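User: I'm putting together a teaching handout on how multi-component assemblies are represented. Below are the sequence lines for each component of a complex, exactly as they appear in our records. Could you produce the 3D structure of the whole assembly as structure tokens, so the students can see both representations side by side? Please keep the chain order the same as the input.
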Amino acid sequence: MNAFGLAPLLLVFPMIGVIFNGWFGYRFVRADAKVGEKWAGFFSTGMALLSFVIAVLIWVSLLNDHHSHIIPLFDWFNIQGGLFRIQWAFQLDTLSSTMLLVITGVGSLIHIYAIGYMHGDKEFARFFSYLNLFLFFMIILVTGSSYLMLFVGWEGVGLCSFLLIGFWFDKPDGVGWANSMAARKAFVANRVGDFAMILAMCLTFWVFGTMDYEPVFESAIEMFKAGEEVVLPWGTYSLGAVLKWITFLFLVGAAGKSAQIPLFIWLPDAMAGPTPVSALIHAATMVTSGIYLITRSNVLFEIVRASGDSGHLFGNISTPDLVAIVGALTALYAGLVAFTQNDVKKVLAYSTVSQLGFMIAAVGMGSYIAGMFHLITHAFFKALLFMGSGSIIHGMEHGHHHLHDHHDDHHGDDHGEHPGEDHHDDFDPQDMRTMGGLRHKMPTTFWTYMVGSLALAGIFPLAGFWSKDEILATVADNPDQGAVFTFVGWTLTIAAFCTAFYMTRQVKMVFFGEGRHEAVEHVPESNGYMTFPLVVLAIAVIFAGAINFPKIEFGGGEQAYAGVLAAVAPAEEEEAGLIPTLALEHWLEHSIESYYLTNKADPPVLEMPHWPTTLNFRVAIQSSIIAIAAIVLGWLFYSGWSKEEPFAKDRLEAIPVVGSVWLFFQSLPFDRLMINGWVETIFKPMAALSERLDWDFWHDYVHNNLIRDSFISVADVLSNAVDPDGVDGVVNGTGKLIGAFSTQLRRIQTGNVGNYALSLFIGVTVLVVYFIFAS
Amino acid sequence: MDLTTVTIEWYIALSAILFTIGALGVLLRRDAIIIFMSVELMLNSANLLLVAFAHHLGDATGQVLVFFVMTVAAAEVAVGLALIVAIFQSKKSIDISEVNLLKG
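Assistant: Of course. Below is the structure of the complete assembly, with chains in the same order as your input.
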């Protein structure tokens, strides 16, 4: 008995939610906001929960049977007897099951949260309809059995991302315009990645004749073992040389979706969407599809790594190395920019970019388990942080409204110097500089936020500690992998320092000190719909590290830390004894073919770097010290922010040299480089080309001479010759002919009875004569 | 040929003459009453022939048929005279050359 056959239901439930909310939900909300919101919200949430139940059933079935299961639904394309055949099929294996659990699990919690967060929005039902549509496409993305199915989901989640970022496109005072611009920016930036994806898929099909994962990987391995060359129309190439371009294009696609250099610039702007969207799409699920793609294609990446010279893109950098470098640089850059942000959500957005960089770097180093592990824990704590920030924003808005009402009530006897245009009008509920001291006002939000940010900073024993350590340990455990790994290791270590520092800055500015705005005094705790998911996720964040505890081994090179080790070890040993170690690794390795080809095949086919299996004490202690140091530094820097001058210079900005660096990063150098440099540079010649070549020359020539003139001459013949003489002649001629004939014919109708009688008589006579002689 | 004996040929000849007179009357005359009478003449020529052959062949069917013909002729006279009266009331004439509403 297994639940694999239930896979189509994964898609059915969210689609029912989409249809329900799209067709009926908004009518309910319009008719009666209170009841309608309950219907729309709970229906959607129920559908998400049902998908989660199915995902759990599939997971349970996979526990007994680790193999990959293909559940075909129907043929999508079937051309020329299987020459091009794409099945609409689900691939259920440990990797897609893991992704499914994260998507539907975190997704369901965010649905619940959104019921509270979106309360009072007149487009309540539309919002939930989009959320369910997003789940639908995301499930297609992770369960599809071919690159084309993945691409369907890939485009679908892009669409939902666009719709949800621009959800408030109709807000007044230009805010709606800014929101829809952000949505468009996300869409366009993703388009670049999508284009690379299309090229990669075409190339894959060209080389392997199919787009299904398993046949592609199998034939890639066979070709690699046999040393076959790939014959393309314009030449013959080694397998590594072709695959390096396929995987490079996959990297570009992943950079678009997972917000990596150079395409990450859309993600911070995507914060224009409602906060549940940021939590679900732009932190926990959609942005991880790039990591999923690379993990899914691990065989192709590892073949490139093992191909030696032919797999090198430039110098001695192969595609997996480039993936790791891109990830590490993104992690560091976004971490530095996060220092300079004052918007509570923007900090988290850059933090997300940075953490995605960690994951990309991990999968680039072949440590797919570490990447997936960090993906899961990050989904938990970043969804938690985003929902916490939503709770804060909600609270600040409420406080501000309360303040406004209060002022209006006592308008006459209050200060009254500037009636109608006081400083509250440009109040920004997301600006951390006006917050402070919220820990007393929102205790639940505060405690869950603390758990989330400590996990993100990588503090023992929260989830982020284990997953981030596994990534860093990959570097330490592979000393033979050369300069790239060393570079990535150091970059990520610095990025980890940044992470702890900017999170401390944020927590200090938001929750500690004293309130720097009157609104803070009136901030209420958020309602149960919003705090319940926070508590659930906070508990998940505390224990999520357990899904992949490393083994603890004593002795060896760890003698230097013997003292520290003795203090830490007993507790860890106990935990490790209770929970099986490396659960995630044993679970996911069934989906990662490269693992078997490296470690179980004889002789090894591929040369994947080692996966860290034991706790690396040097790395663990080093990163703990760095994180704690960053927290202490951040705490000291941002203590005592003055209540009177909330908009004073940032503490880092005030330091001479650091300040200029700070300002440099605040100006978003990469965005400027992209928008002012790259886009402008490309745009100007393109505009010139389009105007010169296209408009003046080809456009005019083609349109005036070829299209217009030939059209006119044909139309001339048609209208002056064919139509009057031909068509009209036939039509009018028929009429005239019938007229002339009937003019003649009417003459026999004399009206004279005698004539009729005569013709009758003649007729009878003729008949009689005929019958007489005929017989 | 024995002219004293009246054979069937005589009847056929008389009937043909009567029919011809009737047909010519219908075709050539304009007075509706005359035309009507000519029609009666044609009907009666047929009756004459039916009776003659019935007698000649010793079969009563022809004689029975004559009664039907006379019945139909009576009905026809009733309808026809009514039509003529109606025409006369509107036209003050029963000249059928003036009744040409069907002229195309």
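A couple of points students might notice: The domain at 8-94 of chain B is CATH 1.10.287.3510 (Helix Hairpins). The interface with chain A takes residues 23, 26-28, 30, 96-97, 99-104 of chain B (CB under 8 Å).
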